[in-house]
Design brief:
InterPro entries: AAA_22, HTH_77, P-loop_NTPase, TPR-like_helical_dom_sf. Helix content is 55%, strand content 9%. By secondary structure, the chain is α/β, with parallel strands linked by helices.
């Protein structure tokens, strides 16, 4: 185990800081299977090293796949309905359409030669089998490597049983040199040395080391847990305690103890060696999915017997014992458990009768985080909050699951799903946000402020995906609910949603009127963020007929957002001004403005923005050849191009698309313009 970090986005594979040991024959065998079978599943007991082996194979085979190796991690996913979304997110596919379907994933991968590593399939085996089978049937250049405790049962599936590491035979006279020929011994030696510097297998301890790895059956997780004990116990102490435990369990017959039970017994023993506080935190922290930070542990896991001031030391103890793995994410230390370890802790929490209580505390903590993110959205911490929510994505899902699983919690779930409204858009998870809201609205039908806001957000996300027919009646229902509640802020957003609806229907003048009303109402209630969001959209809505007003709105929006340190809407307003300048013939000014954008967009990488290489900005003219020198904003609250599907930009789409075809200019975001002769150019939504 040990400290881990994520590799760069291009690698797509989590990289462990500890060395990969042994498994040469297994790596070669699996690579051979992948050469002959487009799907290979690694099976084996928990703790045997399936995930680590799969990741290592992905690294070693990266050069064989021009379009890379991507990992789909499923340990933190519980809702099978989000499997396609999770696959798409792992591929970097952010979709704004009404329904994120498997067909869209297939289309994204159509021309790619890629290895997909799907990790921890066992709890979603049926759904994984359907999705993977469909992908393989449609994509002849795709290879898939999965890990699961069970085979998936797909036609043509190659399977490889991952066995424990080789161990020495049960004899008493091993030499240190002989023992080092066994991967299990090398693994134990290296991990023990990481907690007890200077430790090595010598002639003096060879017999004890040989007996220990033999008793542990070469299970990597068991070996690492045992090595962690070297910080406080001698090798002989560990060996005596383990042999006594297993002898009592099996009546002296080592063969009577299955490997999975070996791991279970070692975890039981590791649990007993923990302090009372460590056992308590182990169980309570099992409610987290995808990891947690110290603040979360202090908020969720504390009680009279585990006070807040003691949590840091307890976390340190669990890291030292390899129960927790320390990682770093966006400059913050985070901790996670291997799934086998987490499941063990949750069993103890359930047995204590406290599982529901700590799942509720977990939900409440993430409700607070979402509220803080919403409050900090329009300001200098905007990007940091979006990055924070991305790191908590699995926990947000777990909290929403709790709200749906627990009677009477739907209203709180609606609050949780609506507070990070912009997160669903910036994260590229509009479809997922809509799915949660749809289920919550069905579960909680009582009229309330929370339900009204959920209706509004559900309608807004639907409009952002172009599901106008479905969303339009919801906008009216939201407006009626806001009127009943006399909620001025909600009424302002209802006007905003009506504007989007009109825009999608090609009613530009009505859209402008609604945006104007919404902006005025937002200002009346002191919602600067809402007013700014309406401002740049209004600018684009009116720019075909009133360019002076459009430019004034863009510049006012840029001033307001700059004063507040906001980034997202400011980039939108800057792009809107570029479009207006281009439209009125001020190409040099438009390009000069565009050159300012890459620096601004670079700060938005955690929210999905990606400035193109070269930093040339958003607009690039050229009579003979169209050059892709644009800012690619793959998912924004309003796609930044005059995209034919977008309500506000639709009036400009035809004119700009015509100019692009003529080679006059290249303006795009939210999609890409194909480089090459003008006759070959066109808009290609991502």
């Amino acid at each position: 185990m040990g400290t881990q970090k994520q590799s760069g986005a291009d690698a797509g594979i989590p990289i462990d800081l500890t060395a990969f040991i042994g498994r040469r024959e297994e790596v070669a065998a699996v690579r051979g299977l992948l050469a002959g079978s487009r799907l290979v599943t690694l099976t084996g007991v928990g703790g045997v090293g399936k995930t680590r082996l799969a990741y290592h194979i992905g690294v070693t085979m990266a050069r064989a796949f021009p379009d890379g190796v991507r990992v789909v991690e499923l340990a933190g996913l519980r809702d099978p309905g989000l499997l396609v979304d999770t696959v798409a997110a792992s591929l970097g596919l952010r979709n704004q359409r009404a329904h994120l379907t498997l067909d869209l994933v297939v289309e994204h991968l159509r021309t790619k030669r890629m290895l997909l590593v799907v990790d921890n399939c066992e709890h979603l085996a049926v759904e994984c089998a359907k999705v993977i089978d469909a992908l393989l049937r449609a994509l002849p250049d795709l290879r898939v490597l999965t890990t699961s405790r069970h085979v998936l049962g797909i036609t043509g599936e190659g399977t490889f049983v991952v066995s424990p590491l080789p161990v020495p035979l049960a004899k008493r006279d091993w030499s240190a040199e002989e023992l080092r020929r066994y991967s299990a011994v090398v693994l134990f030696e290296q991990r023990a040395a990481s907690v007890l510097p200077g430790f090595e297998v010598t002639q003096d301890n060879a017999m004890a080391v040989g007996r220990l790895v033999h008793w542990l059956d070469g299970l990597p997780l068991a070996l690492e847990l045992a090595a962690a004990r070297m910080r406080t116990l001698t090798l002989q102490d560990i060996l005596v305690r383990m042999e006594q435990r297993f002898t009592l369990l099996t009546g002296g017959s080592r063969a009577a103890l299955p490997r999975q039970q070996t791991l279970r017994e070692l975890m039981d023993w590791s649990h007993e060696l923990c302090s009372e506080g460590e056992r308590t935190l182990w169980a309570r922290a099992s409610v987290f999915l995808g990891g947690f930070d110290l603040e979360a542990a202090e908020a969720v896991c504390t009680s009279a017997d585990l006070p807040e001031h003691a949590v840091l030391d307890v976390v340190h103890g669990l890291v030292a014992k390899s129960v927790l793995i320390r990682q770093e994410n966006n400059g913050r230390a985070r901790y996670r458990m291997l799934e086998t370890v987490r499941e063990y802790g949750q069993e103890h929490l359930a047995e204590s009768g406290a599982l529901a209580r700590f799942r509720r505390r977990h939900r409440d903590h993430h409700l607070e985080i979402a509220a803080r993110a919403r409050d900090g959205w329009f300001g200098p911490d905007q990007v940091a909050w979006m990055a924070r929510l991305r790191s908590e994505h699995a926990n947000l899902r777990a909290a929403l699951d709790f709200c749906l699983d627990t009677p009477g919690e739907a209203a709180t779930g609606m609050e949780l799903a609506t507070r990070p409204r912009h997160y669903w858009i910036a994260h590229g998870g509009i479809g997922e946000g809509r799915r949660w809201l749809s289920r919550l609205l069905a579960a909680g039908t009582q009229d309330s402020a929370a339900r009204a806001e959920a209706l509004g957000t559900y309608a807004y996300l639907g409009l952002m995906q172009g599901a106008v027919a479905e969303a339009a009646p919801l906008v009216i229902e939201f407006q009626q609910a806001a009127t009943r509640l006399q909620d001025a802020s909600a009424l302002a957003w209802a006007q905003h949603h009506l504007a989007l609806t009109a825009g999608f229907r090609g009613e530009a003048a009505r859209a402008a009127e609604f945006f104007e009303d919404a902006m005025t109402q937002h200002r009346a209630v002191g919602d600067v963020a809402g007013a700014a969001e309406c401002m740049f959209k209004l600018a684009i809505a009116v720019c075909m007929g009133d360019t002076d007003r459009a430019l004034s709105l863009c510049q006012e929006c840029q001033t307001i957002t700059s004063e507040h340190g906001e980034s997202w809407i400011r980039v939108d307003a800057l792009f809107a001004e570029c479009l207006v300048r281009w439209q009125i013939g001020e190409r040099d000014t438009a390009e000069a403005l565009a050159r300012q954008s890459p620096a601004s967009a670079s700060a938005l990488r955690p929210m999905g923005y990606r400035p193109v290489r070269g930093g040339r900005g958003l607009v690039r003219g050229g009579r003979r050849r169209c050059r892709t020198r644009c800012l690619s904003a793959r998912h924004t609250p309003v796609p930044l191009a005059c995209h034919r599907r977008h309500p506000v930009r639709r009036p400009l789409h035809g004119r700009i698309a015509s100019a692009v075809r003529q080679g006059d200019a290249c303006v795009v975001a939210g999609g890409a313009v194909r480089s090459g002769p003008a006759s070959r150019c066109g808009f290609h939504p991502r």
